[in-house]
Amino acid sequence: MSKVAVLGGGRSSEHEVSLRSAASVADGLRSAGHEVVPVHLTREGAWTTDDGRTVTLTPGAGLLDCDVAFPVLHGPFGEDGAVQGLLELLDVPYVGAPVLGSAVCMDKLISKDLMAAAGIPQVDYEAVQAADWDADRDAVLERVAGLGLPVWVKPSRLGSSVGIAPAHTADEVAPAIEGALRHDARVIVEAAATGIEAETAVLGSGAAPEVSEVGQIVLTSDDPDAWYDYEAKYTPGGMELRVPAPISDTAKATLREIAARAFTLSCVEGLARVDFFVDGETVLLNELNTLPGFTETSVYGKLWEASGVAYPDLVSRLVELAAERFARERAHAF
């Protein structure tokens, strides 16, 4: 069994969610027989141990004498490639996507452009750059109007629905863009999609990913305008995951095939939750999340549980995959 540094917290708005996910991962690893070393990343960016000591980070010297690092960090500075690059410099194996895959999937516009180039079906979208908005917002609005209504306006590089706003009327589009630009200089505006929201979980290497059963996201709110926002995701009882999703075998096969292909195209390793819209036989990719919520009741873990993989076995397998990838990559000549 391995000695695993579990990283939780971080600088993003998802700090508290990360701490809960990290605690669940640590419990799962202990149940599987691993030794766990918790590492807390403060909101200011400091790394500390359980007893409050500052962690000294020295390039090439590993991390606290651990065999593997398990970053359970959501949002900027956690799943965008920044921490992954630091772990590369420390020369320690780590769970999850490498620097490139993390950065690609964190940036919705880059990810959408990559999937479009590969011919993967997804909702229509437009990019809004802060410089273009400041120079000629009327031209931007005219371009965005081609998507129809309603639209969804999102910061390109945030997670967990932070900064996202729906615009149901033309008058709501500009304020939604302004709101998203407060979070990011790059904004994506997406056309609405019909059908149900479905998700699957991917596990493995980019060369041979395994795909879980498919689940449907069902909101429990009685509000007809409710959507899968931060509160719905992280408030107990805010959503229900129905597994298997009520879709046809053909749609399920298509969805799972797209999930595996998108995982590989995005240079992701280890894990990802892949989100879709499904309407009859039409399957549209929404996005990949390389470090999804990771409590035992989060969607990623529940999908694998429904597929026959218990939570301790899941987190243990991710540690094994990290060590395998490290050995494979360090065998290359640099």
From TrEMBL:
It is found in: Cytoplasm. Residues 112-320 form the ATP-grasp domain. GO terms for biological process: cell wall organization; peptidoglycan biosynthetic process; regulation of cell shape. The active site is at E14, S160, S298. Coiled coil: none annotated. Keywords: ATP-binding, Cell shape, Cell wall biogenesis/degradation, Cytoplasm, Ligase, Magnesium, Manganese, Metal-binding, Nucleotide-binding, Peptidoglycan synthesis. Binds 2 magnesium or manganese ions per subunit. Its EC number is 6.3.2.4. Pathway: Cell wall biogenesis; peptidoglycan biosynthesis. Mg(2+) 2 binds at E287, N289. It holds the Pfam family Dala_Dala_lig_N. Its cofactor is Mg(2+); Mn(2+). It catalyses: 2 D-alanine + ATP = D-alanyl-D-alanine + ADP + phosphate + H(+). PANTHER family: D-ALANINE--D-ALANINE LIGASE, D-ALANINE--D-ALANINE LIGASE A. NCBIfam families: D_ala_D_alaTIGR, PRK01372.1, PRK01966.1-4. This is D-alanine--D-alanine ligase. It comes from Patulibacter medicamentivorans. The gene is ddl.
